[in-house]
Amino acid sequence: NNMDEGLLFLNPVWEIESINKSAVKFFGKEKQELLGTSFFMLDDSDEIRQLLQKIEQEGKGRLVINRGSSYYQLNGSRSTDKGFVLLIMDVTARTASEKIRREFSANVSHELKTPLTSISGYSELIETGMATEADVHHFATEIHKNSNRLLTLINDIIRLSELDVSEDTPAMEKVDLAVIARTATDMLAINAEKNNVTLSYSGSHEYIYANKMMMEELVYNLTDNAIRYNNKNGSVDVSVNSDGDKVTLRVKDTGIGIPAEHQERIFERFYRVDKSRSKSTGGTGLGLAIVKHIVARNNAHLDMVSEPGRGTDISVTFDKYRGDGE
Ligand code: ADP
User: Fold this and answer.
1) Dihedral sign, Cα of residue 243, residue 217, residue 326, residue 178
2) Among 116, 102, 184, which residue's Cα sits nearest to residue 153?
3) Ligand 1 in reach of 307 Cβ (< 6 A)
4) Is residue 139 helix, strand or coil?
5) In the chain, which residue ranges form alpha helices assigned H by DSSP?
6) Which of 10, 65, 173, 224 is the most exposed place for a label (fewest CB within 10 A)?
7) Distance between Cα 247 and ligand 1 center (Å)
């Protein structure tokens, strides 16, 4: 009765002999109503009929069915006393992550193909002698640009896969978030200057318990976006502050902002509000998906306030470091 899975024992004519709590819940009826009832009476869909037939003929069978917004896997087999055993598992989360993974693979292939097609096309023109002296320089520039793009994409894809695959807790240590934020802003100072954006850092030394490399990536990705999606003469303020037992990293920009309908989706892989702006500024569409992972892995919380034309304000809140290994 304490199993998450639904479990049923059925007699040779498919009448329910015994049923646990989770299976009762699955049918949404009273236990007394279900006992003695034929499984066909409860569900006479073709898919269920085929499953039961298969179990009868082959000794076992399985099926994934969709009910409302949930997915269930039914595993059935013949039991030794000539009856049947049926196990019902909620596989909604697994089905959703399989779907995301399938879409991700399709997107990855597409994203990698675009720069590779350019590289192949331009180099072929040079190889066959179709390019004039003047063209060669331009084509080489394109080949260089597209290979850099490929490298950036591959790096981000590898990073996401690493974050996806590893279920271990990352190596955590006492980290001064102010030092990390300062280093990231220093690294991005030239980018900001190139984009005519004023980048400033303010804050106090605040300690958290986190993975250091992930913190560097977090600040870098958020600040890099704040610069890339900014306007000429705009500004980006990065700050680290504490309030009670919480430490907050804040990246605030006066950039183009994000329309409300896109705000939730920008954390999805390859989701971009304006694809050409993202691409022309070296974006891969994966930065915020990486940020989302990092926030979850480090027990942090992300808040975003954004208004088109006014800017975006992203805060990531952590628990303050409390002592040895906490
Ligand atoms: P990208 O590599 O395209 O920047 P991200 O995952 O980092 O990918 O961000 C996804 C999308 O969210 C971006 O393409 C952009 O449309 C939007 N975005 C992210 N940060 C900002 C920001 N600070 N201001 C405005 N739009 C942003």
Assistant:
1) negative
2) 116
3) no
4) helix
5) 21-27, 31-34, 39-42, 46-58, 92-127, 133-165, 177-187, 189-194, 212-228, 275-280, 287-297
6) 173
7) 24
Task: Give 296-318 as a 3 state SS string.
Answer: HHCCCEEEEEEECCCEEEEEEEE
- 256's CB contacts (< 8 A; 6+ apart) are 229, 230, 231, 308, 309, 311
The residue whose CA is least distant from atom 12 of ligand 1 is: 266
Pairing of strands 198-203, 235-243: parallel
Phi, psi torsion values for 206, nearest 5 degrees: -130, 135
pLDDT per residue over 235-266, tens digit each? Answer: 999 999 999 999 999 999 999 999 999 999 99
Provide the whole-model pTM.
Answer: 0.80
Q: Which atom of ligand 1 is nearest to the CA of 230?
A: 24
Distance in angstroms (rounded) separating the CA atoms of residues 316 and 318: 7
Number of Cβ atoms within 10 Å of the Cβ of 266: 20
Instruction: Indicate whether residue 255 lines ligand 1 (CB < 6 A).
Output: yes
Residue 129, both tokens: 């002698």
Please report the atom of ligand 1 found closest to the CA of residue 269: 6
CA–centroid distance, residue 192 to ligand 1 (Å): 16
Per the rule left: phi > 0, alpha: psi between -120 and 50, beta: everything else, 257 is left
Long-range contacts of 27-32 (CB under 8 A, 24+ apart): none
pLDDT in tens, 9-43: 999 999 999 999 999 999 989 999 999 999 888 88
Closest CA to ligand 1's atom 13: 272
State the CB neighbour count (10 A cutoff) for residue 300. Answer: 22
Residue in the block written with tokens 């697994």: 94
